[in-house]
Amino acid sequence: MAQLYGEPFDSGLALAEEHQLTADLAAASAGYEELLTLAESLEDSPDVRFLRAHLLSNLASVRLSATDLAGAADAVEGARRLLDDVASAPMGPRGRQLWLELLLRNLLARADLLRNTGRLDEALACLDEAAVRLPEFDDPEGLRTAELGLNRVLLLIDRGEWGAAEELATALLASTPATAAPAQARLLTALGLICSSTGRLDLAEDYFARAEDDFRARGDIGEQHLMLAHRAHTAMQRGELDVAERLFAEASAIFERQRHFGHLAVCEQARAFLAGRRGDVAGAGDLMASSLARFERLGAEIAAADSMLLGAQQAYDRGDIDEMKRLAQAARDVYQARAVYERCAQVDLILAETLEDNLNRTDHGDHEAASVRTALALALPAALALEAARYDFVSAHARSQWREVADHAMRLAFRLAVRSQDQGLLFELVEHRCAGATLALDPTPRAPSTASEGEAASVFPSAAMKTHGHLAGAMSLGGVAAEAAASAGLRVNPPPRVRMAPESGRTALQEYVAAAEFRYHRRIVSDEEVAFWSPTS
Fold first, then answer.
1. Tell me, what's the pLDDT at 419?
2. How many Cα atoms occupy the beta-carbon half-sphere of 473 within 13 Å?
3. Would 321 be classed as within a structural domain?
4. Structural domains of the chain, count
5. Half-sphere exposure (CA, 13 Å, Cβ side) for 302?
């Protein structure tokens, strides 16, 4: 036990940290609050203020683990005020290092808090501030360095930037020393989530198993409980819905008993989706409403928007179109405000699919052409953006899996283009798709999905465990030859612009490409330009 402040503070800190490790967060919180009360009764001095900052920092960590975001915010702000207050006080080299460590912990906790409440740009600013401070800190075990990197990975995951998140997490895992075991285990968990969310389920389960072994070895019960939910998410991705439901129910019971309401809301969100798949409309609605209410109370805006998006799908299933539009637009407004552009594309696809379904069910008469144009204006830019997301991935296998996500969207765009009877648009679509090579790792046809196309496409996005449909089909990708692109670690460029006529200078899908780049802040084509016709000598 470290001798820092004398008794009863040193032993009290050790006991509270043990409670936190064993997931008894109520006991840990009570311990820190009791020590805080005692510290506040002492005569004021820089040392006492530093002690209070330490206790508040630990309390913030406990409240973040319990997803008590409001309480965590109070503790984070209080600790930062005290740290700033003693920054100029005389302290020796060891005291300075302790102050820097608490400051780094405070910045990382604040970034975590901001990320959980959807304030992603502000979270990034905190991480940047921590990066500026980090060189002053003696970090022989590499723990704070690894934690800073991990927080950047989690921020990229929240933005849906899967390729960049995977690349950074893989690099960090390779460079993080064994002495930073807690950060290593959480990096493994993050990689499991990335792989699960991008279709590599066997690899995801391998990462989860390695992380769980580390958590078990360290006696970290809280992270082991979270692993239940992660495994449930992977089972749901596999189509093993009974297994997923059992694991989510087990995790929900634990989180409710421990009053971890944020984690409970994520599980309720998933169970609402599963109830909808069973045809339990009432149960799905109740779970979705409970999840949404919890997220809203916590101030978790992006997670609440995910529940709204699920609610929009459920509203459409029961024929409540007005409610579907209201919830979908409310979710999109949040995603747009928080720069979560992958989610914006997903909402636009849902709205386009709704229009297509409505066209299939009802006669739009003279308005059909306008309805198809509206659906295309939503679907095609979103499909281009999701298709372009593969350029984020270094791994060819990851790119191959991501195409399954994009295939569903692009098939919708093709169906609508056929329905529009616009031969020029179809021609441009084909030319754009043929502009590059197919980056399939296995040229043999894939086995059909166990779920129908509609079922797979309806998988909802979860705040902590994002999920997408996985569908069969080949996809044409751009930039390099297929054999070279199958090499791990090779960056892939977007396809070139396809010039459609020598006179006009028009390029394929130019209006839709411009819309996609503007709406979703993603490069769709490269600066290179090729002609669709064969040049003559």
1. 94
2. 17
3. no
4. 2
5. 29
pLDDT at 513: 94
CATH number of the domain encompassing residue 45:
1.25.40.10
Average pLDDT on 89-103 reads 88
Domain containing 91 equals 1-138
- Angle between the N-to-C axes of helices 368-388 and 510-520, in degrees from 0 to 180, rounded to the nearest 10: 60
Alpha carbons 322 and 318: distance in angstroms, whole number: 11
Residue 455 lies in a domain: no
Q: How many Å is the maximal CA-CA distance in the chain?
A: 91
pLDDT per position as a tens digit, 233-252 = 999 988 899 999 999 999 99
pTM of model > 0.85: no
Rounded CA separation 355/374 (Å): 8
Q: Is residue 9 a contact partner of residue 50, using CB atoms and an 8 Å limit? A: no
Q: Phi and psi dihedrals of 481, rounded to 5?
A: -70, 150
**In the numeric block, which tokens belong to residue 7?**
């008794």
Domain limit, last residue, from 97, 119, 138: 138
What stretches of 219-260 show up as alpha helix (H) in DSSP? 221-238, 241-258
Q: 188: how many CB neighbours lie within 10 A of its CB?
A: 22
Could you read off the pLDDT of 471-521 as tens digits, one per residue?
A: 222 222 233 333 333 344 555 678 888 888 877 788 889 999 999 999 999
| Of the residues 86, 111, 138, the one at which a domain ends | 138
Mind giving me the DSSP string for 6-63? -TTHHHHHHHHHHHHHTT-HHHHHHHHHHHHHHHHTSPP-HHHHHHHHHHHHHHHHHH
CB-based contacts of 191: which residues, under 8 Å, 6+ apart?
166, 169, 170, 173, 204, 207
pLDDT greater than 60 at residue 456: no
Please check whether residue 295 is in contact with residue 311, taking contact to mean a CB–CB distance below 8 angstroms. Answer: no
pLDDT bracket for residue 318 (50, 70, 90): confident
Distance CA 52, CA 271 (A): 41
Label residue 100 by pLDDT band (50, 70, 90): very high
Q: How many residues does the chain have?
A: 537
State whether residue 527 is helix, strand or coil.
coil
Does the residue 483 lie in any domain?
A: yes
Going by C-alpha positions, the residue among 292, 17, 336 that lies closest to residue 182 is 17
Q: Distance between CA 66 and CA 263 in Å, rounded? A: 8
Residue 388: per-residue pLDDT: 85
Judge whether 239 lies within some domain.
Answer: no
